[in-house]
Amino acid sequence: MSAQHDRYSIRPGRASDAADLAQLHASVQLQAVTGGQPHPGIAAWVEDLLDGHPSVVPADFLVAEESTTGRPVASLVGLRQDWSLAGVRLPVAQIELVGTAPEHRGNRLTERLFATLHQRYAAGRVPLQVIEGIPYFYRRLGYDYALANDGGATVPAAALPATEQDRPDDVGGLTVRPATIADAEALADIDHCLADGATLTCLRDAAQWRYEIVGRRPANLSRRVVAVLEHGTDVRGYLVHGARLSAAGELMVFAAACKRPADWPQAAAMHAHLGHIGRQYEALAGQPFSAVRPILGPDHPLVRLAPPGVPRRPRGWYVRTSDPADLIARLQPLLRARWHTADLRWPEPALIISLYGRAARLEFTNGELTAATVMRDTVSPSTDPRTHAAIPPGALLQLALGHRTLPEVLHAWPDCLLRDRATEHFLTAAFPRVPVQVWPRN
Ligand SMILES: CC(C)(COP(=O)(O)OP(=O)(O)OC[C@H]1O[C@@H](n2cnc3c(N)ncnc32)[C@H](O)[C@@H]1OP(=O)(O)O)[C@@H](O)C(=O)NCCC(=O)NCCS
Fold first, then answer.
1. Angle between helix 421-430 and 332-341 (nearest 10)
2. CB neighbours of residue 196 within 10 Å
3. What is the number of the ligand 1 atom nearest to the C-alpha of 140?
4. Quick one: which atom of ligand 1 is closest to the CA of 29?
5. How far is the CA of 134 from the centre of ligand 1 (A)?
6. What is the distance between the alpha carbons of residues 107 and 73, in angstroms, rounded to a whole number?
7. Distance from the CA of 87 to the CA of which of 4, 107, 168, 412 falls in 20 to 30 A?
């Protein structure tokens, strides 16, 4: 063990770390916003994560402890959750609260924390890690930009309907009201329905919805407000927005869903509600309400049906997988369904996809996918006649998550190689673009 490693040890978090970790993160995160002061919203978030969170346990934190003092000097947390990719459940860990005390920087503690975290997820078979954060920094730790969940146009406050009462009465009888814990089961049921659709979503069960509605400390930076869309007493959808205006006077929208797609044209009720909430916040905080800012993609129904706004460039999410061949194998039911829908049958007993290190072997019976296994790659996949496709791991992430299509990947990655046109045709149908409707759990 090097002298540097002697100085620090990496260990799982404990409930008793709450005060130290709250103080550490409050004093290192978002310092540009606070002007160097501790951030109370971050402290409350850390305390909530370490105190009765429905899906986080203290050991989900990793801590770098200074050996001489026993004090945490750097840490991060991996928030485990289930996402659904067009019906296939994918365990995901979202990494948050990466921070090192200023006097301990320069010791590669973040690198060490991530190395331990990645070993943990490899052992626990969590195929995907995601993080939003410092541009370029996480590329150095094996992450690629392979997901975007925003980019929807910002709608100026003046463009929103003036009051909810201004809505015409013929919008199908849908109204929006604040959620209560009695709505939790209905909200979980909506997530369940969405998970079977064609999008990438993050699922919440009833306990997690209750937590979103009443579980967090008021100051928690990640506290959101949940509203439900209802028809009579039938909960038909939800809307999740910020608990306060941003520094720019924007009201953020984090999620919106309708159980029945046919209800979306009446989503005007949601825009009127957002206008009403924004003006309420303006009156409470004495800060002008400037706009509604959706943290939703441009193709999200709420965005498409919004009054005209100002387009924004989507921010990227970093994604990592330790085993891209395993990721392909997990998508087996989805691949089978997509090929079936496209009426495609593979003419050989197997389709071998090299990920430059490991390979996925897809087996077919009568042209239909019947099994997917992970195997050792050949030494030279680009020239081996048994290999049908060689795809760099970063490119595979883009394809698997539906972020980029095969033609886009072929354009950008010269080392993405396909044996023939049949393989190209098959893989194009396997990996269409997937709309993202992810509001991660934190
Ligand atoms: C980001 C942070 C955790 C890194 O601390 P650390 O683990 O001690 O990292 P080190 O100081 O050992 O730096 C490791 C490398 O990353 C680089 N790096 C460090 N902080 C960086 C930053 N904010 N942006 C870009 N590069 C950074 C260093 O220059 C160094 O590069 P090198 O290998 O070329 O020498 C720390 O600066 C921090 O706590 N910042 C404030 C909180 C924050 O921004 N967290 C991330 C939220 S996504």
1. 110
2. 11
3. 16
4. 42
5. 9
6. 11
7. 412
Assign 277 to helix, strand or coil.
helix
Protein residue whose Cα sits closest to atom 29 of ligand 1: 106
Q: Which of 98, 116, 131, 317 maximizes ligand 1 atoms within 8 Å of its Cβ, making it the mutation to test the pocket?
A: 98
CA distances from 73 to 91, 108, 131, 144, 363 (A): 29, 12, 21, 27, 49
Q: Is the pLDDT of residue 170 over 80?
A: no
The residues, ordered by sequence, that sit 6+ positions from 203 with a Cβ below 8 Å of its Cβ are 81, 82, 83, 84, 191, 192, 195
Determine the length of the chain. 442
Closest atom of ligand 1 relative to the 97 alpha carbon: 47
Query: Which of ligand 1's atoms lies nearest the C-alpha of 109?
Result: 7
pLDDT tens digits, one per residue of 209-220 = 999 999 999 999
260-316 pLDDT, tens digit each:
999 998 877 899 999 999 999 999 999 999 999 999 999 999 999 999 999 999 989
How far apart CA 317 and CA 312 sit, in angstroms, is 15
Find the 39 Cα to ligand 1 centroid distance in Å: 19
Q: At what angle do helices 40-49 and 18-28 cross, to 10 degrees?
A: 150
Neighbour tally for 201: CB within 10 Å: 23
Contact present, 118 and 50 (Cβ < 8 Å)? no
What's the 114 CA to ligand 1 centre distance in angstroms? 13
Mean pLDDT along residues 335-346: 97
- Based on C-alpha coordinates, what's the Rg of the chain? 23
For residue 152, how far is its CA from the centre of ligand 1 (angstroms)? 30
Assign 169 a pLDDT band (cuts: 50, 70, 90). Answer: very low
Ligand 1 centre to CA of 147 (Å) is 23
**In the predicted structure, residue 167 carries a pLDDT above the cut 60:** no
Rounded-to-integer distance, Cα 319 and Cα 145, Å: 6
Cβ(331)–Cβ(195) below 8 Å = no
Domains of the chain: 3-126 (3.40.630.30), 155-313 (3.40.630.30), 324-430 (3.30.1050.10)
CB-based contacts of 278, cutoff 8 Å, min separation 6: 157, 160, 245, 251, 289, 292
The identity of residue 359, as a single letter, is A
Tokens of 372: 């997917």
The type of residue at 339 is W
Q: Which residues line ligand 1 at a C-beta cut-off of 6 Å?
A: 28-29, 98-100, 105-110, 133-134, 137
Closest atom of ligand 1 relative to the 132 alpha carbon: 48
Which token pair is 259?
């159980």
